[in-house]
Amino acid sequence: MAQTEKKAGLLRRTSSSKKPLKEKVLLMYEDIFTKEDPTKSNPRFWDELFLMKVNLEHLEGKLEALDGDEVVKIRDNINSLFHHCVQALAEEHQIKVVNALQTLCALFRGVHQKNKSATGFDIINMLMGFDKAELRMKELMESLDSLLCGDGSESLKSLCLKLLLCLVTVTDNISQNTILEYVMINSIFEAILQILSDVSSRARHGYDAVVLLALLVNYRKYESVNPYIVKLSIVDDEPTLDGLGRVIHHALAEYNRQYKEKEEENQGGFFSTLTSMVGSMFIADADEKLSVQTNEAILLALYEAVHLNRNFITVLAQSHPEIDIATAPAVPIPASPTTPLGTTPPSLDMMNNPELPLDPNLQTSNLLITFLKYSSIVMQDTKDEHRLNSARLCLIILTCIAEDQYADAFLHDDNMNFRVNLHRMPMRHRKKAVDKSIPSRPLVCAVLDLMVEFIVTHMMKEFPMDLYVRCVQIIHKLICYQKKCRVRIHYTWRELWSALINLLKFLLSNETSLLSKHNIFQLALQVVNLFNMFITYGDTFLPTPSSYDELYYEIIRMHQVFDNLYCMVLRVSANAGPWKEPASKVTQALVNARAIINHFNPKIESYATVNHISQLSEDQVLEVVRTNYDTLTLKLQDGLDQFERYSEQPREAGFFKELVRSISLNVRKNVSLSTMSQDVLLKEFSSIS
Amino acid sequence: MGDTELELSPARLEELQKSPSASSTSTTSSLSLPSSPSSGPRPLTSSSPSTSEGLPTSSPPLDVISEGVGELSLVIDTEVAKKACQKVLQKVKFLKADGELSSANSEPVLVNGTAHPSEEEAEPVKNVRRRQKNNSSKQSWLLRLFESKLFDISMAISYLYNSKEPGVQAYIGNRLFSFRNEDVDFYLPQLLNMYIHMDEDVGDAIKPYVVHRCRQSINFSLQCAWLLGAYSSDMHISTQRHSRGTKLRKLILSDELKPSSQRIRREMPQPPPSCPPTLHHSQGMSEHSLSPSKRTHQRSKSDATVSISLSSNLKRTASNPKVETSQDEDLSSSSDSLELEAGTPVRLTPQREFIKSLMGIGKRLATLPTKEQKTQRLISELSLLNHKLPARVWLPTAGFDHHVVRVPHTQAVVLNSKDKAPYLIYVEVLECENFETSSVPVRIPETRIRSTRSVENLPDCGITPDQRASSFSTVPNYDNDDEAWSVDDIGELQVELPEIHTNSCDNISQFSVDSITSQESKEPIFIAAGDIRRRLSEQLAHTPTTFKRDPEDPSAVALKEPWQEKVRRIREGTPYGHLPNWRLLSVIVKCGDDLRQELLAYQVLKQLQIIWEQERVPLWIKPYKILVISSDSGMIEPVVNAVSIHQVKKQSQLSLLDYFRQEHGNYNTEEFLTAQRNFVQSCAGYCLICYLLQVKDRHNGNILLDSEGHIIHIDFGFILSSSPRNLGFETSAFKLTSEFVDVMGGLDGDMFNYYRMLMLQGLIAARKHMEKVIQIVEIMHQGSQLPCFHGSSTIRNLKERFHMNLTEEQLQVLVEQMVDGSMRSITTKLYDGFQYLTNGIM
Lengths: 689, 842
What we know:
The complex is a heterodimer. Chain A is mainly α. Helices cover 67% and strands 1% of the residues of chain A. Chain A has 33 helices and three strands. Chain A has helices at residues 2-15, 24-32, 38-41, 45-49, 56-65, 68-88, 94-114, 120-127, 130-149, 154-168, 180-185, 189-197, 199-217, 227-234, 238-267, 269-308, 312-316, 324-327, 367-378, 385-403, 405-411, 443-457, 465-485, 493-509, 511-515, 520-541, 545-557, 559-574, 580-589, 591-611, 618-627, 653-670, 678-686; strands at residues 417-418, 441-442, 633-636. A two-stranded antiparallel ribbon of chain A has the order 1-2. In chain A, helix 16 packs across helix 32 and helix 24 (493-509) runs parallel beside helix 27. Chain B is 54% helix and 6% strand. In chain B, strands 1, 2, 3, 5, 6 and 7 form a six-stranded antiparallel beta sheet that branches. In chain B, helix 7 (116-147) packs across helix 9 and helix 18 (301-319) crosses helix 19 (321-328). The two termini of chain B are 47 Å apart. At the A-B interface, helix 14, helix 15, helix 21, strand 1 and helix 23 of A face helix 21, helix 22, helix 25, strand 4 and helix 26 of B.
């Protein structure tokens, strides 16, 4: 440190005479923003610059304030500033490295801020110069890679990630960020993986690394071959994938925990309700929405992992943070975090606390369970755009999971039973389920519960049509698996049936308003075909013969809905128009439901007359059903057990582009290099230098 | 003993009598290993150097003795020391006086010996000399016995334990080498317990053999280390630390007993330690190098003399493995030595870590309050354990060499136990030639399941073999379609054609999604609703009777599933299932339980099983293997296809007889009769066991019923002198409830008579070989604090239960009495009631 002082002293003699009130670093910045080569007046200019504390705002402001002509004039100086920044990264002196990293950040931001409209090539030219760009970026990426992978300071690693996040998010649309082309060529994928695979570095930098990865994967995803996609899809190292899963798990679990806390707070008596209501009006609400937004990036990472990497599926079922250390004796227990830098989400440090007590009441959890819980919270309210996006992404992820053989295998594994406490929206007409009563069941039951819950709670004016379609598709895919593998889960299918019938009812009663915006026949067809699955293939996956009877009972009980639906689709398909064809498909799909109704209703009526009963009990109806199967003929529908596999392109491309844009904006806003206080850094490095 | 000697065939006796005289005529060197009949060519080549050596030191008439001295003076190896013991024995046989042996002659030599095992080994030699006079005549007979073919490991153990004669002990210690490994392994607990708790002479006699075997086998090393730890635990802590057992255990675990053995195996595939080594063998070795591991039965003088010249060399090599390695480099190929070096530090580690993590899981499970939480935790812990597999680890309870490749974690179950957390895991292994030398299988990712149900889209996860290869030194190319997996085109991953229907379609659904519209053109298919309903009920009825899932008793379902069915199912769901050498094993991990009594019970059961088989008594018992890892942990080989009677009754809500009819069909069907016979034979077997061993705590949770109708008693926590809480329950000889009798067809049935007859036959047979049984128990009594040895009369009482003094008629009356007594025993019923009240066991 004495050395630094001395150098600062030297500097004072040369330049402080002019403007003694300004910080020295600002004076040096001014030197850069002249046409002159700063080394002319001070040959050791660059050496000294990186010993100064960076003034980010000032530097960024300066860059932004430049107009076109000036830029061209000082381009050489900026180029050499960039060059020297990159060189400084290789310095032994850690202060220099820190300052260089921060300066680079300011450079990227400032230049982009200034030239929002400019093409990527102009920006590259201005920062590095065309001829040198490739070399400079190569050097930069290599330095960052070695900093990230080396056993250097943790704060430095954190800063490297911040710089990368900063670079990745400088443009609103990530695909327009031409500089990233160099990040593609000089991959830092391996460095990210290394961070994720190591327990201690994962705890500190995992969050940033995962966000960075999610963003990089989305760079020009649909236009070119993105090496990050390729690499992510073939990772098969379990500790690494597990690490990725844990970071995601932790972020989602943290949100769940906060939500639950808030919920419990709100239930704590009248007075506290009042206060927290007032409080939440100002803080909590904004706060909560923000965290949904921050989790978009995590959710995107989860999606990419599930979608791209088949090996990741195994991780879904096996993350158990609380037993991390206990079971891995080979992995050295990391020293407790030395300096809480405030750069990582603070709670992340908890993740690997070796002294984490073994709470006997703690339910063993895994990523999938946490994700389902998270989904249940997010799906509760889809009015807000971010929440709607999150809910949609959740459903897309579930779609991918439901399609995967291996995932299906463990979802239906009879030996893996869990209690999953899904969050249920408080509604007037139903009591809040008591948590304790939830039985321990295979995970697929929780997925189905979540779908049922969604179906029941979103029949509203702003009808989230595409979410409903996805929801029904997920159910369909799960049932297809059950049919194919003859898995009989003990699930109360009745709840699903009645939810689906209610959905049809809702579509019917809101026909006109919905038809103006959506193709309701597509959804209706899917729902009816689900019933066809149960009716014609029920023998392959229903748990008991009586559940098959119950299916008939439910259809007969709600026969009016099917009757009305039939009338409606018949009417629509009779008229020429855009809905003619989809409606007629529904007509045909309804044939079995109608056959059941037409077959059993007269039988039930005659039973009632014969026995002189006005209202038949459920058991009596079931009795009639059981005795009259043999005279009923059903029509086997084609392709019931087939589904379209999920594909991101082209259907979802638009959604993901927008999502990534929103994430970019959010990350850019929240990446704050200033949180890394100079004091902390100095303290940390004083012992080193 | 008397029996066996009488049974010697006359021819053999003759031979025995001749042999001493024959050997006396020739030089002493011909008195080599008695067990090796092919010692013919040896004396000629070896005698000349030894006599030239021996003659100058002593006068001609004392030829033989002076030779002994000459040999003693060359002590450098335990081998030689043992040889000396041999000589002493032999001298005794010739009734030679020991006066000539000057202690002055031998003492300094011993001081000179620097190798430390040799000093220890030399010790008994002196003692022998002091004592040999008295017993000489007896021992000459002994030697004949020892040389006879009838001398088996059981006798050897017995003499080792009972003989106070160091010479005999040393001889037997030596003789151990000539038994088959498996035979000795059975008595390993006895051997080690003697090593730990008996006097030094016995220990010294046993040690060379143990060390030798440890060098040969990792498995043996670990077994020894575990047993030594477990049986030392009853000693006082201060003495324990310095005890021989602890020292040997440390030596084994330090892995110093390794280097030479590996090389031996490489140079000469399978040195036959079980059969007596031939002369060429030992000679060949002495010519090359005398590595300690090649310690065999070198008794000829020539060996001794050769060893003089090599003695310095040898000592160096023994203490300094480096020298040995360099010495050996010309012998082994460079590649071998490379692997050797790589393998050196981790010989025992993987397996120890594996066992340790299994035990760790058990410990953590014990902290969780509910079965459900335990099960979940178990599954998740095991899934993490999977990350570290395949590895060079194995299940010691298995009967073949293998590597563990995967633990199908979702199949694991927590067993019923009040406060401990024993659990049952299934383990997928790949059988191999030799787990120490065969290469460890390559890991296959979880997601690569080769489901037999669907053949679609398997090759779409990309793993290049090279990527995997980098982490392993060798990759056996066992999986030919590895090539297919390496195809990884990102385009393939990303571009999914919307029309692709991935589901395998049965019967009718081969059409595309939008075929619904064009349906009219096709012939519609109609099905009857009744058929669907019927199929549903039929399919559910067809599945074999399974138990209902009960979160409080998770093991019931897992254990009820037929083993073959389970193997098939697990094989379907594992990425290793396609390999031809794939096997499924299971093991119960017990943490916090002392399995030493279980091991003792296993040995007794096994011994009785052998006896009954030998005597052709069709009693059926199922000794299950026990692995003692420490005094409070271990593993048990589960009995497959068996559930406890408690579980049977709770799940089926039927009486035992009705359950038999449900499972095996009605009376008079062949299936039922077979099951009934099995039941009777096993019942009789276990009743005898329960009586002889005084097995207590016999509630229905501790009695299993297998799919063939056998009963199997488990949990031998209360045997011999111990009983639960000493409440005085279970005073009857064994457990025989009226329900059992019902299954046998009632008191008047033929099967019940058969049962009584079997009991009698079994008891007579067991009585005949009582010594073999007693000996197992008696040796383990040494130094033991186990509750089953509580009090002073354990062994005496055990002996009394064999009723040596009764005639067969009296014995028959006794059996009748016991059966009647047990039948009427109110205490059995009381105990069941007590268990139902306290533990909910039906």
